[in-house]
Amino acid sequence: KNQVEQSPQSLIILEGKNCTLQCNYTVSPFSNLRWYKQDTGRGPVSLTIMTFSENTKSNGRYTATLDADTKQSSLHITASQLSDSASYICVVSRGGVTGTASKLTFGTGTRLQVTL
Amino acid sequence: KAGVTQTPRYLIKTRGQQVTLSCSPISGHRSVSWYQQTPGQGLQFLFEYFSETQRNKGNFPGRFSGRQFSNSRSEMNVSTLELGDSALYLCASRGDFSGANVLTFGAGSRLTVL
After folding, report:
1. With the C-alpha atoms ordered A91, A97, A100, A101, is the resulting torsion angle positive or negative?
2. Does an H or E element contain B68, and which?
3. Which of A58, A60, B19, B86 has the smallest C-beta neighbourhood within 10 Å, fewest atoms?
């Protein structure tokens, strides 16, 4: 069964600290992995997209890593800011399937709260 | 470039009623997909439309339906509402059907069923 599991479910950190969010998946065949940020009351916004051959990709203070062998990804946030408070969703795309949206498997997200 | 627009943003219905949600994709985008988001289940795929045709459908009952118009705007309808239909309904658009582009989501329609 194609699944995406994220940990932790929720996380509270102090402003300025770093944190790492985890994503494990069993989706096969693998096509790509995306991290989305979803602010409360808003739709998800794409942070990074990684294909099989990419190990690391950065977007400002966000750095995503991918280990396709162990089927794990992480999202590292450096020097956190209050505006980083949001849910972070890991989305894995299956290869070899016609159609775009139907081949996406979503994690349930990690809710991050950055406090003073 | 305007983003994905969903209306209404919030609505309250009672059990047994029906509801229609609207989604206007980014100008030029022809693919629209719909998702249901609940705290425990995360995002669940409902259906996807491209060029006015439903291309894929998720595992939802027939009470959930949708359509796409010639201008790519899409609507989804839920009939005979149940309490469990309370959720954030998100729509996303992309430029084509190939899967190469990233989904752009709207802000969602928050449905509460009483």
Report:
1. negative
2. strand B64-68
3. A60
Q: Which of A31, A42, A100 is nearest residue B94 as measured by Cβ atoms?
A: A100
| Alpha carbons B34 and A78: distance in angstroms, whole number | 33
Which amino acid makes up residue B20? Answer: T
CB A72 within 8 A of CB A85: no
Q: Do B99 and A43 touch (CB under 8 A)?
A: no
Q: Are B53 and B30 in contact (CB under 8 A)?
A: no
B102·A46 Cβ contact <8 A:
yes
Which of A81, A102, A96 lies closest to A39, judged by CA?
Answer: A81
Asked if the model's pLDDT at residue B13 lies above 70, the reply is yes
- Give me the pLDDT at residue A30, please: 87
Q: A102 and B45: CB-CB below 8 Å?
A: yes
What pLDDT shows up at residue A1? 78
**What is the DSSP secondary-structure string of A6-53?**
EE-SEEEEETT--EEEEEEE--SSEEEEEEEEE-TTS--EEEEEEETT
| A76 in contact with chain B, both atoms CB, cutoff 8 A | no
Token pair 């030029």 in the structure block, residue: B28
Say if strands A56-59 and B19-24 run parallel, antiparallel, or are unpaired: unpaired
